[in-house]
TrEMBL record:
Organism lineage: Bacteria, Candidatus Dojkabacteria
Membrane topology: Multi-pass membrane protein
A GO CC term assigned to this protein in UniProt: membrane
Organism: Candidatus Dojkabacteria bacterium
Superkingdom assignment: Bacteria
One GO MF term attached to the UniProt entry: ligase activity
Residue ranges of domain O-antigen ligase-related in the record: 218-353
TM annotation in the entry: 30-47, 54-76, 82-101, 122-146, 158-178, 190-207, 213-245, 257-276, 340-360, 372-387, 393-413
Entry annotated with the keyword Transmembrane: yes
Subcellular location: Membrane
Keywords noted in UniProt: Ligase, Membrane, Transmembrane, Transmembrane helix
Stated name of the protein: O-antigen ligase domain-containing protein
Length: 421
């Protein structure tokens, strides 16, 4: 039953539904995630055969969460941390749920297939919304999204922020484009989501040689391209580097990949100039966005130096900068590592690296056993860590749930059942 619920959960993950109560938004998937966690705990207590998580995985998870909790003790106003604490303490333990659910290769494949089918469906929906701007105009489609769609899928408060800070629109070469985001309120979150799933799709292709996974991979990566997220582009470059490493290690450069790239030339040529211009602007320090981002990084770094070990406390940074209004504005460092450092200190950032690093090391060990799927997991991590130099998606529900899947997958591949009487 838990496997079935997990498959349904991952299929519908990109299709969010949010209930709004005044100024508060409650994502339905937050409730579903908490329900899954309690279902797993209850089922684990009632069953005779218990699958225990690896000591390393569990200890790193709870050590990191413990340091985050400890950082709140040093916060000026601990109550400001409650919302983010609840989020982290109810979402990241799902890593252990996925580990238990994926107790066989067949179960693992079912979960990943569900996620890929759901993600590919969302990408196709995103293509439709993206194409609508060529017939109705980018501004018209944008206003429809923020007035009629996002209040349902992102909540009233967040949709108002999207309307106020219109990151769904981007100016490239003097023309305004609507970025592909499907039902995501933020194109950067969409870029993370589609990019990571694209990597897993290629991993499934490498292990099964099924062409449908290859097709899904290119659909998802193309959706990532259309988000016009510069961090997303660099993430794709990093993920591509992992796949090149795979070909180099396997000593095979199949001609089919060249043919596939040639087949992708027409759409890439159509979008080539906007994509290329957007990508190259990442390296232009005179670009307004780059100037603003560097200022954000400098401010976050200087703040971290004042509170190096435990930081300001999770959820405290914006309020520390703007007392009284910080909680109402979407202010962060636009860099995952600086955001974690400034709010949880050096210790919180270090244990985050240890936690994710354990998954990366285990993925490499699985690859040495010729489990080619884990090249996709490594590519997913490369994409996530590279993109995170420019964005912070640790509180984006669909993205962080995919991260918990990446954390669990390498360990699930080698788990052993421990019967308990």
């Amino acid at each position: 039953m838990t496997l079935f619920l997990t498959r349904v959960f991952f299929f519908f993950l990109p299709f969010q539904l949010v209930f709004s109560f005044g100024n508060n938004d409650l994502p339905v998937f937050r409730l579903v995630a908490i329900g899954l966690l309690f279902w797993w705990l209850t089922a684990g207590l009632l069953t005779k055969e218990k699958i225990l998580p690896p000591l390393l995985l569990a200890s790193l998870l709870f050590s990191w969460l413990g340091i985050i909790l400890l950082s709140v003790l040093f916060a000026a106003d601990p109550w400001l941390s409650i919302r983010k604490l609840i989020f982290l303490f109810t979402i990241f333990p799902l890593t252990l749920v996925w580990y238990t659910v994926m107790k066989t290769p067949a179960a693992r494949d079912q979960v990943i297939r569900a996620a890929l089918w759901g993600g590919s469906t969302a990408a196709l929906l995103g293509f439709g919304i993206f194409a609508a701007q060529f017939f109705l105009g980018a501004t018209t489609v944008f206003h429809f999204l923020v007035s009629s769609v996002l209040p349902i899928t992102a909540g009233e408060r967040l949709s108002h922020l999207v309307a106020t800070y219109p990151s769904l629109l981007v100016n490239i070469g003097g023309a305004t484009w609507l970025r592909l985001s499907a039902l995501f309120p933020d194109p950067h979150g969409a870029a993370y989501f589609f990019g990571i799933l694209g990597c897993l799709a290629f991993g499934m292709y490498l292990s099964s040689r099924s062409k449908k996974f290859l097709l899904m991979g290119f659909v998802l990566v193309f959706a990532d391209f259309l988000t016009f997220s510069r961090g997303g582009y660099l993430g794709l470059v990093a993920a591509g580097g992992i796949l090149i490493l795979m070909f180099w290690q396997q000593k095979q450069w199949p001609i089919r990949w060249l043919l596939i790239l040639i087949g992708m030339l027409p759409p890439l040529l159509f979008l080539g100039l906007p994509v290329l211009e957007r990508f190259l602007s990442t390296f232009l320090l005179a670009d307004a966005s780059s100037v603003d981002r560097l200022a954000l990084w400098r401010q976050a770094f200087e703040t971290w130096l004042l509170y190096p070990w435990f930081g300001l406390g999770i959820g405290q940074y914006a309020e520390w900068l703007y007392p009284g209004i910080g909680q109402s504005i979407p202010y962060y460092a636009h860099n995952l590592y600086l955001d974690l450092a400034v709010e949880t200190g050096f210790l919180g950032l270090s244990f985050f690296f240890f936690f994710c690093g354990a998954s990366i090391v285990q993925s490499w060990k699985n690859i040495q056993r010729n489990e080619l799927f884990f090249w996709g997991v490594l590519a997913g991590w490369a994409l996530y860590f590279t993109h995170s130099v420019f964005e912070t998606a640790i509180f984006s529900l669909p993205v962080v749930i995919l991260c918990t899947l990446l954390l669990a997958l390498p360990f699930a591949a080698k788990q052993v059942k421990h019967p308990v009487q």
